Structures are given as structure tokens and as C-alpha cells.
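Progress narrative, work stream C.
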Amino acid sequence: MSATHTPRPHSVAAARTLVGTDPSRQSRHIYVSTTATSQGGVDLMAVERVVNGELPLPELTEVEQEMAARLMTREGYPAHRIAERVGVESRTVTRWRAAWKKKEES
């Protein structure tokens, strides 16, 4: 059985939604960027490492934590697992999710 490989995105906007398969791991891998390693003070490589659980996990800024949490939420990760990876309390992830939902509804 061969694994399919989804190419990495060419823009940061596309990076926020792209999910592909890493053929070397035979598992899902969330790609954040190929052309940029940072944007607006956000270290996209650190976010990608945290989202994919690549050890050692880097420390993230608040903006990076929320970006990683949003990506992991889209993939269906539970709040406690996201909190563990990004270095926040589970309740923080729950509050972020409520804020995102409220923002989408308005």
C-alpha cells in the first residue's frame, strides 16, 4: 500500500488548512509552511513541530500557541491533548474555542 503525499502549501494562508500525509512516517502530518519560516513574529516551524509532536517541543509565544491550538482543533484533537502540546491549561483551549466560535458566528 503506497502512501499519498500532499504537497506543502505555497502561502501562509493556505498553510493554515492543509493536511497531508508524510510518506516516511505513514501517518498524518500537518504542514505549516515551505517558503517562510516565520511571519509577523510567528515562528511557523515551531508551530509545525508542536502540532506534529516533534520532540523536543519548542516553547511558543501566545500567538503561536493559539495558532497551534487552532490547527489541532481542526484535526479533532481533544482540548487536554492540545493543552499538553502547546503548554497551556485545558481551560485556556476551551476559552479559545469559544472565542473562535463566537467570532465565526458574528
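Work stream C, second folded protein:
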Amino acid sequence: MTQADTGVAVTGVGLVTPAGADEHAFWAGLCAGHSVARRCDELAGLSVDFACPVDGLDLDAAVGGRSVWRMARFVKLALIAARQAVADAGLSPGDWDASRVGVVLGVGVGGVSVLVDNLRKLDDAGPEAVSPLLVPMMIPNAAAGELAIELRAQGPSLAPATACASGATAIAVARDLLTRGRCDVVVAGGSESALAPLVVAAFAKMGALSTRTGDPAGASRPFATDRDGFVIGEGAAVLVLERTADACARGGHPRALLTGVGSSTDAHHPTAPTPDGRGAQWAVEAALREAGWAPREVDHINAHGTSTPLNDAMETALISRLFPHRPSVTAPKGVVGHTLAASGAIEAVATVLTLEQGIVPPIANLDALPVGFALDCVTKEPRRQSVERAVSHSFGFGGHNVALAFQRV
């Protein structure tokens, strides 16, 4: 039997990003290739006062219902994305066997704004002012729990936290739940909303953020010679995954095949990657082995591409060594910023859309590659390319590496 008969399919996608609040708006923004970073009033006075927020969407109105008051922002983002994905898959919670449906939602930070607000109340008015909902709103697994309630999903509900690889880790875990026969449907992805001044100040203090305060829209510059750090963003993306045969049997329409996943750990440093990319390469090689692909068969790389000096140099070394045939490379963070735990899931959706559309979006703000960066980066405008096989990279603080191999249906 072929991978298409036995593998795992993506049957639905949904997302809320700084570039758009559904897949069509997101894709248009990504293909336009212009960063959406802007100054944020809530960050005024910080050394870095800009970010990539989700604008133009009333989250409370979009979520609706009487329970919205108990949800932190990252939960609302996840819920909106999940509803889109389930609808896109043509599924209905009223029709499925709830015990066979899982939720895996990666989150890195959780409800940090809720925590900060309640700490201020504690300092100003004492313990009686602290909300009894602080803990259930703050904890990172709140999104997975609320999604399970919304979808009436009674299979495993998990919240992997592998920093900026969390969304990709969630997709990898979902794949395992399906191939092991534990679930028939898994709703998986990542969500993050950490634009609180405390978090932004902390990232700035450690030197991770771009300091281009005079040009926020030009600050996120993956793989550029003059890159100086990432631009923090927020958002969520969710994919519905099913065994391909099951999806086809119910009349579903697979949008792409998830043919392989791989993960590894650098075991090198709390924040810095292994300089030569060997740790990350193990994850990519594992995904290729599982997919049954030789490296030369990969047409396209959706890079982690944070715009930090260390990550982009490491990732360039990895790609150049493993893929000397120079597949096309894109990096969505140039447009939407670094959405932390959501980034791996957002970039997985971007990879699915590239396979479907035959278009590779450009990397924003990339004018010149450094000497020695032998990559085929797509720049300036989208490139028409028939992509059959693609790999999406995700890396996180702590040395977490995840690679997802997707194939066109």
C-alpha cells in the first residue's frame, strides 16, 4: 500500500495571525511579502516598542457565548482557529465518536497577561482582589481543555510545551495518536499571545529581539545579512488530522499528507542552537526516513527563519549540508513575526498551502544573503513552483527540534 493509503492526512486548517484571521487572508498577506509589524501602545516606553499583534478582530464577539469571560486571549485565538479547521474538514462534533477524538494544542507561555494583571491587583488591593479564575485562565493547558469542551472531544487532550517548537510538536504527537490507533481524529496546533510588556522586556533584555525601533516593518529579516533579532507576534493555527483511508471513506478531502515527523534535542545550551545545526539535522533526517524520501526529493523548505543571527546561521548550515540541490526556501516570520508556540503550526499551514497552490511566498525584507549562505531563498515576490514534497522546520529554546514532512495529495 502507498503512503496515500496508509498515512495521515491534513483534512482541515484554521488560523488567526497578524497577517489575517483566516487561511485566505493569511495566504494573501504572506504572498504579499510585507511585514505587518507596528508600534504598540501597550509597549510604549520599552526599548523595543513594536510587535506583530492580531488586529481587526473582536475576539470576544468571534468566540461568543457565555464562557468567553473565563478565557485568556491565547485560548480565544485557539478556539477561533479550531472552529475554522473543523468546519474546513467537513466534520461536526455532533456526529463523531467523542472518545476517538483528541486535542493536542502546543502553548509556550500561557496566560501571562492574566498573571500580571492579578499580581498588580494583589499588590494594590490585597489577596481578596485576586481572581478565582487566575489559575484556570493562566495555565498553558487551558487552550487544549477549552477546545475539548467546545468540540466535545473525549480522547487524549494534551498541551506539549517545547517553546517555539510547541505547535509542530503538537502535530507530531497527533500523528502518533492516529498511527497507533488511539484516535480517529485529532485537532492539533499551537497558540500564543505573549505581547505583555513583561515578556517583551525580557526577550529584549536577553538580546533576542530586533532593535529596529525606527523601522518596525523592516525589522524581521530572516536570513538577511543585517538581521538583528526576531519580532514577537501572536496567533494560533490548528490542523485537523485523520488517517488518510478514514478521511476518504467518510467523503473527506485530504489537503496534504503528513508523511513523516522527526524530533531531536541539541543538549547544548538553554537558548542558543548547536552552531553547526547537527542537532536540528537529526530531526530532519528522522522525518525524511519516516517519509521514505531521499533529501534530493525535497522540493521546498519552510524554514524556522527567526531573523536572529544564531538561528539563521545554524539553519543555513543544516539546509546547505543536507540539501545541496538547493530546494526553494521561505520563512513566514518575515511577515507575521515570531508567534512563539504558534509558529510551527502556522508554518505547517503555510506549507500545506504551498503544496496546494503551487506558490512559494517570498521572505519579507530579504535583500541580500550573507556571504556563504548558499540557499535558494524566495524574495521580492511569490514564486510559481510545483511542489511535491516539502519540509517545515521548527526549533525552540531548550534545544527542541521538530521537522514535519508534507506531501501533495
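The two ends are 15 Å apart (CA to CA). No further action is required on this item.
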